Amino acid sequence: MHSISPAGRALARLGGCVRLSAQMNKNSSSMMALAPNTSNKRETVCIFGTGDFGRALGHKMIQSGYPVVYGSRSTQISNLIPKDAEVLGHAEAAQKAAIIIIAIPRQHYNFLTPLAEVLHGKVLVDISNNLKLNQYPQSNAEHLAQLLPGSKVVKAFNTVSAWALQSGTLDASRQVFVCGDDVEAKQMVMNIVRALGLTPLDKGSLLAAQEIENYPLQLFPMWKFPIFLSLGLTAFFFFYCVLLDIIYTYIYEKNDFSFFIAITIPNRVCPVMALILLALVYLPGIFAAIIQLYRGTKYRRFPDWLDKWMLCRKQLGLIALAFASLHVLFTLVTPIRSFVRWKTSTRIISQVMNNKTEPLDHTNAWLSDSYLALGILGFFLFVLLGITSLPSVSNNVNWREFRFVQSKLGYLTLILSTAHTLVYGGKWFLSPSTYKWYLPNIYILSLIVPCAVLVVKFLLIFPCVDKPLTQIRQGWERNPKYSEQSNYIINKSAV
Amino acid sequence: MHSISPAGRALARLGGCVRLSAQMNKNSSSMMALAPNTSNKRETVCIFGTGDFGRALGHKMIQSGYPVVYGSRSTQISNLIPKDAEVLGHAEAAQKAAIIIIAIPRQHYNFLTPLAEVLHGKVLVDISNNLKLNQYPQSNAEHLAQLLPGSKVVKAFNTVSAWALQSGTLDASRQVFVCGDDVEAKQMVMNIVRALGLTPLDKGSLLAAQEIENYPLQLFPMWKFPIFLSLGLTAFFFFYCVLLDIIYTYIYEKNDFSFFIAITIPNRVCPVMALILLALVYLPGIFAAIIQLYRGTKYRRFPDWLDKWMLCRKQLGLIALAFASLHVLFTLVTPIRSFVRWKTSTRIISQVMNNKTEPLDHTNAWLSDSYLALGILGFFLFVLLGITSLPSVSNNVNWREFRFVQSKLGYLTLILSTAHTLVYGGKWFLSPSTYKWYLPNIYILSLIVPCAVLVVKFLLIFPCVDKPLTQIRQGWERNPKYSEQSNYIINKSAV
Amino acid sequence: MHSISPAGRALARLGGCVRLSAQMNKNSSSMMALAPNTSNKRETVCIFGTGDFGRALGHKMIQSGYPVVYGSRSTQISNLIPKDAEVLGHAEAAQKAAIIIIAIPRQHYNFLTPLAEVLHGKVLVDISNNLKLNQYPQSNAEHLAQLLPGSKVVKAFNTVSAWALQSGTLDASRQVFVCGDDVEAKQMVMNIVRALGLTPLDKGSLLAAQEIENYPLQLFPMWKFPIFLSLGLTAFFFFYCVLLDIIYTYIYEKNDFSFFIAITIPNRVCPVMALILLALVYLPGIFAAIIQLYRGTKYRRFPDWLDKWMLCRKQLGLIALAFASLHVLFTLVTPIRSFVRWKTSTRIISQVMNNKTEPLDHTNAWLSDSYLALGILGFFLFVLLGITSLPSVSNNVNWREFRFVQSKLGYLTLILSTAHTLVYGGKWFLSPSTYKWYLPNIYILSLIVPCAVLVVKFLLIFPCVDKPLTQIRQGWERNPKYSEQSNYIINKSAV
User: Fold this and answer.
1) pLDDT average per 10 residues of sequence, chain C (495 residues)
2) For residue range A95-118, what is the model confidence (pLDDT) as tens digits?
3) How far B399 CA sits from the closest chain C CA (Å)?
4) How far is residue C175's CA from residue C159's CA, in Å, rounded to a whole number?
5) Quick one: which of A54, B484, C44, C171 has the most CB atoms within 10 Å?
6) Among C419, C413, C414, C390, which Cα is nearest to C402's?
7) Domains defined for chain B, CATH in brackets
């Protein structure tokens, strides 16, 4: 018999490998003392299928004190199967446990139908994953529930990787999404999840199974568009700068400034990208307001592109913050750069040679200090916005607070950043010498979107525009077919 | 009939707008496949009231596959009401569903009393909000429960904004606070919350309703005092610096240093504010210890001002960190400033003109490197303290760890920051020339509070003071009226 | 009678001290209005033991509207006990409540056995803590459950400190771990936890009690090894640098550079530590891959040291990030240092004296800009890795995303950091003058581990090595005793 005291033996063999929960995984030895009296308490779990994930889950369960029975076509004991587990035929194994984990692929679910009688009333845990998003019209768990209507199907464990279970290195999310129509069955599975040191998250009824099955297949879906947009714009501005700053200089001034590629040009592209992306965060809100004003209602859907744009504003903002941070770092290393030190000493030496001392240029001092101060304040607010978008912080503020931060502070950040760029790059607007090959400097390009956003936003906060907009957003319609006011006069005949 | 397959139609019409949960909202298309088989599974939900929030919630529910019935005075279909919803009289609508969402203002709750019989045994979801904190002595939900004692009242959804539900841009908290006296009713509502892609948070019985109703009305209540204090102090120190550094210089030395307003003075005010606020974080703890030592007990309440002060220490500390970060940024841009570059070259040129080279001043090199190193280490620890106060991090440490970080590392930060200021500003203490208009330099002002805190704290850790304090904090009293020791002698007669 | 309206009186006396929950603790006054109608709703709670924690919990419960009855040997009222609580004999007190909080030490649990009959069917809440980890083979709560098999034992509250409850300053974790075998009893206790403004966290059955009892005794157990390792290495490199940079220079060049201790040497040690620790994060993965390739299976445990190493990779990485951040700060203050400013002006003056201007050294400009750019990008990615390891962020990414970030971005960070060091320190490799006392420069020492990791990793991604490794990690074995394929042919006889 393999199942008499599996926990004790498993623990003796597996040693320090037991780690219970996210917050308690700090002291694995605590489980050792726990083991002896667990074997007679935990209910037996049956696992159908001896594939990789079935074995990994079995190992982990035995470590956590569960007697495990494998249901398999062949009852010969493989050395792959955890030593303390029993291996029986499917029907025999199923009879031994109230919970059966279905660790076999969806294609083979049909083979369970002859077992319907044995599985009647049992909790079946569907742990399967698909190879691509929405592979089947119906989720695997719902398919299983349809095949075996007498069993209680619970979806769980599919978001955990076998490798992670095996190695115990659960650094990533310990959350296990659980869904199912039977509340008690779900509760039983959630208890096992907790016992394995993971955190169950109830996602409601079995209707959520499709989502749960799609979840582990995703790779930052919301980030795709913002990242591709940023890469494209960055490449464009980078080559634009290479053209104007390196190639132009090389052709007309015979100076080789190719080393500008490392810092000078990145430090021109980063602030431009940060400013444009930050403006793109607030642009869809402007469009939405204009559309609502034009239509006179909020009850019609926005065009699809605007909808999608609004949903990736957070991502756009965070990428803008990344560019701003790089800009700060690139700027702060300026005085350490070999080229800058050479330029400084050359300038001083030439002054000495010419035997003249320049007086302090007050305008220059003002401009230089102003754009630095504006930049610092803008960056500071930007980091604040970034911190409030951390999930744990944004969960701790209410809607009023969130909108205050994201809207008020966000626009202040945009104003400060735009002012920073205007003060810094102002001198380039007028001087014609900056128009190399009749192309504008990228500072000028970078200011178009943010200035447009700020101007239109300024117009939108005028009372004559703001008032109807606020009304529309509170549910008012300019041309309603039939208007029902929300005042409730007690009208007994209608009741 | 509108309710035959609302989900399918709603989804077809609303397209990519469906987003289920915080962690699963990445792939909206996954819901499309889910839609067809949901319509016959989700239970019908009734909504009383066709105001803005009622309509927004109805839209969202239809998108998530719930058949929705509106209860309204007038059963004419308005184009504001979601197309796939039925509109019936209140009584008729209520009979169709087990859950009725009361989307009407509290003032009109009386109109529900004639419906008591129809609503008997039904789950009523109170989603109302008030206009100001504690507007009524009794929460809306408890008022509703009193009016209809036969119904099961659950408070929910009031923290979600209609605009957010409508637009789908749930960037902020997805948490929906739920409370109610009936566990099953609460569970039913929580399932709907999950199905809408939000996260229910059980806040216990209906007694929590007042709190839940107050929650969305708050705007950073704990931050108000720390922010006003900081603004006041900042303004004071700013004008103090303007007086001494710009006006004094202009009057007596005829130099116009007005551009100091942009960076030089902010970079004098920020470190002063950071140091003072950091000391103010630890000052109430000192006061509390003195009061407890004096009273000889911990079982009497602190004065009100101390209680409030202790509760906003985290906020004070975070504002101090913000000032420290600004100080770091302002300091690091120093070499890029036009004024500083001018000063450097002027100094070098004057050395050349006088034909002398200064040897390395070792004392100066030591002082300069020491205060920079102290400042860097202090700032580093300060950032560490800030990170551990993030909700998700502080939830993952136990009390012992939290107190170790906040107390031990906190005091180390204060010591390092004070030492940084002392080493940097030390030279100003003695030289009389720094006392312009007999006013002390702000470095001296900034050191008063932190030095006082450190000296008293140093006295408090002496064993002769620390021992009684520790005893008091473990429950010991110096002059108890009646003292009961915690040793348990088995005393059968007392049992 | 003390229990008629304890809540009202308690609140009147305790004033602003009431704070309900983590997210709602912003407005304590909201509870005042709540108080009057609570007294007749909350069920009575009995507390056995009038020690410090028992009193603190009683205070808090009365504030939250619970009638509290103390069970005590002596029924004389002590002024330590909350004024609104009743004090009765143990048996009498227990009869008044369904929930009894056992606030007495484990050593005195035996005294409860005579009360078994009175306590039959009651919910006993074990709140005890031990003095050291795994003090008893059986957890206190399980011991209690064994003594009183007729009662429903729930473990809770042991992770909350009496001081925190008393002072209301619950800045740290508000999570209360709850475990117990009876679901309803657990639910009752969790409702009390919520009413006290804390967040209950269900940890499953009473088997989790040992863990919960060990939790508050820990002090960063996972951080111990990484911190000691870092301290040791830091001390070694620090003295190595002192030897070569200060002592050697003093002996052979008669220059006193002792002030290098403050910034120059820390800024040499920090990057070295950051690079080595980052490489040590990826080294165990390399070892694991080699071991798996050699053994031809993933189903045998790794040696213990490797297991432990793999479990503290996150901590190693975060310490590496701390060193990298310090390196960045130390580097950025370089131009402000008195010594550096002196060196710069001396260099310029000597150029002037010699009447020559150096032309721009393009190679130098390239090298200087390249290593700065590489360092900035590497640090940027490193900070990104740090942010994704915040619990709230890592809980919001799935396994695929987590592995993408930690593996792909992690290796990119390592490559950039190594390249940064190579470009910066490259010149020291060849020049023999850098081998003071035949000892290599620490740049050379720092590159050994990261280069080794990168070279082996490069070999491991060759298809001829990667393919068998991937197979092994998917569960394939090179020499299985008995091999069961995971294809499920419907085999009715086996069923």
Assistant:
1) 36 32 35 37 86 85 88 71 84 91 90 90 91 86 92 91 65 79 88 85 86 86 92 96 89 87 94 96 92 83 85 92 97 93 89 80 90 96 92 82 88 96 78 71 88 95 88 74 38 34
2) 999 999 999 888 889 888 999 999
3) 7
4) 8
5) A54
6) C390
7) 6-217 (3.40.50.720), 221-473 (no CATH)
Among B369, B372, B397, beta carbon nearest to C173:
B397
Tell me: pLDDT of B160 over 70: yes
Using the beta-carbon criterion (under 8 Å), do B396 and A357 form an inter-chain contact? no
The Cα of C435 is separated from the nearest Cα of chain B by a number of Å equal to 26
Residue of chain B minimizing CA distance to C169 = B311
Q: At which residue do the structure tokens 């034909």 appear?
A: B355
On the question of pLDDT at B166 being above 50, the answer is yes
CA C92 to chain A, closest CA, distance in angstroms equals: 34
- Inter-chain residue contact A211 with B24, CB threshold 8 Å: yes
Q: List, in sequence order, the alpha helices (H) in C64-172.
A: 90-95, 116-119, 140-147, 162-167
Per the CB < 8 Å rule, is B376 touching C217?
no
Within 10 angstroms of residue B162's Cβ, the number of other Cβ atoms is 22
Q: CB pairs below 8 Å between A and B: how many? A: 262
Selected for mutation to probe chain C from A269, A330, A338 (highest C CB count within 10 Å) is A338
Looking only at Cα atoms, what is the longest distance across chain A? Answer: 103
Instruction: Collect all residues of chain C within an 8 Å Cβ-Cβ radius of residue B347.
Output: 345
Residue of C nearest to A335 (CA): C335
**Residue (of A264, A266, A274) closest to A375 by Cα position:** A274
Q: Which two tokens stand for residue A78?
A: 């493989």
Q: Hey, are the CB atoms on A361 and B342 less than 8 Å from each other?
A: yes
Cβ atoms C312, C222 nearer than 8 A:
yes
Tell me the C-alpha to C-alpha distance, in Å, between residue A318 and each of A380, A419, C102, C386. 14, 21, 50, 15
pLDDT band at A42 (very low <50, low <70, confident <90, very high): confident
3-state helix, strand, coil in chain C (%, to 5): 60, 5, 30
Query: Cβ–Cβ of A30/C134 closer than 8 Å?
Result: yes
Residue type, A62: I
Q: Do C34 and B211 touch (CB under 8 A)?
A: yes
Task: Give me the residue from C204, C334, C365 closest to A339, CB to CB.
Answer: C365
Question: C264 to chain B: which residues are within 8 Å by CB?
Answer: 369
Beta pairing class for B45-48 and A123-126: unpaired
Longest dimension (CA), chain B: 103
What pLDDT is recorded for position A364? 87
Rounded CA separation B212/B155 (Å):
8
**Closest-CA residue of chain B to A359:** B342
Q: B70-119 pLDDT, tens per residue?
A: 988 776 666 667 778 888 888 899 999 999 999 988 888 988 899 999 99
Give the tens place of pLDDT for each residue, A204-217.
888 888 888 988 88
ipTM score of complex: 0.83
Does B397 contact C322 at a Cβ distance shorter than 8 Å? no
pLDDT at B430: 64
